[in-house]
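Standup notes, protein team

Yesterday: finished cleaning the Umbelopsis vinacea set.
Today: Actin-related protein 10 structure.
Blockers: none.

Input for Actin-related protein 10:
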Amino acid sequence: MSSDAFSSSIRPGSSSLYTRSHSIYGIEDRIVLDIGSLYIKCGFSGEPRPRHILPTWSRQRRSQASDGEAYCISSEFSELYELDMSTRSSSNYSAFEQRLARLLHDIYYRLLLADPKSSKVIILESPLLPVSIKQTIAKVLFQKLHVPSVSFTSAHLLALLTIGQTTGLVVDCGHLEMTVLPIYAARPLIPFTCSSPLAGRAMNARLRKLLVDHGRLILPSTLHRSIAPRTHIPQTLLTPDVIEDIKTRICIVSPVPVSGDSLSDPVDLWKDFSAATDLYHPIATTGEGKSWLFVPGWVRERAAEVLFENDNDDDQKSVVEAILDALCKVQPDIRKPLVSNVLLIGGTAMLPGFRTRLHQELLRVMRSPTESEKRHYSSVLRLHQYLTFADENGGDVFKSNVRAWIGGSLAGSLKTSGPEVLKERWNGTVPDWSTSVLNVGNTTADVQH
């Protein structure tokens, strides 16, 4: 299996950026790493896209095929880390450290073909990424790979740089969590951050439940799949990697909000309002022949409803609630410039129709709020006339899942980054907003240039 199957779909082509020999001459270029729970984006500063997007559950091994090396999936689909790692046993950290060390070794020596000792590293970070995870990343880079320095920089701020702005409301819809961070004059307003676990993993769980209840399995048959016998889908077939594949390939977000408040089960409404086509998704089963999963159209477009549901749960805010809560928290005089520049990043935000649906939901709450919404968001309801999504009229120049990495590449080419941790001065701690940078003896207090 070629590495292209798991890497970025964009090929280098004839760009001169890809003809430079970084491992020999590119010592001034920085390595930019976006280490997510499911994918690691890696490449060199100054380039317009990541060299590779590496699944965290993969392993590179040398192939005997004519195309050289290949990815080999060495274990089942699983996240690289959890956000509650601090509450888990030391064995979880040990496993995380070992997996990360193996992945970074593959990135440097098999993918980028670069000497880690010769290039500084920029790490993209979420504002709520646990300090313990950051410390483990630094430990692997310094002790295993011996990189000269590491800079942790806000992914939200870097993403904002790609649209030439320093003020905006950045919404990161990832796999483990959704995070809304206001940024004003290039300063992340971290105390006003809002987050929710209603993100990619929550959608995967909803999609799996809908497929178990309403999807069907079509086993190999001499009949056409449209008339072949159908059975319920065994739960054992719906593995996490199958669910992730279905989500990324065929799921969409319905542009039409459907309220199920008057019904205990909104499925009937979802079916009636559905305009999506039923699809067949191939799946491997035991025996010969090809099996198919029948995925109803309404399941394809309503699995994402979990991202917009309002359950009045402060711990599980919908993306709409998180955005409005963040606007309510900031000072009134900066709300207008923030709501005038809303930027979506993250893999979940790539779902077709996500931005359109989010825009409609925000306008509905601002223009026709319920009594409860009036009480909660009265201070921001008049902002609907200024609501604008960044680059919505300019096309998708940069995909939302790699936008933050591209911002890191831009910052690296300008020799700019966050506080820099030097290898010879590293004492096991890393700079973080929750601690005073001035108290961290191994970093500088200001942004490095």
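Follow-up from PR in the comments: DSSP finds 13 helices and 16 strands in the chain.
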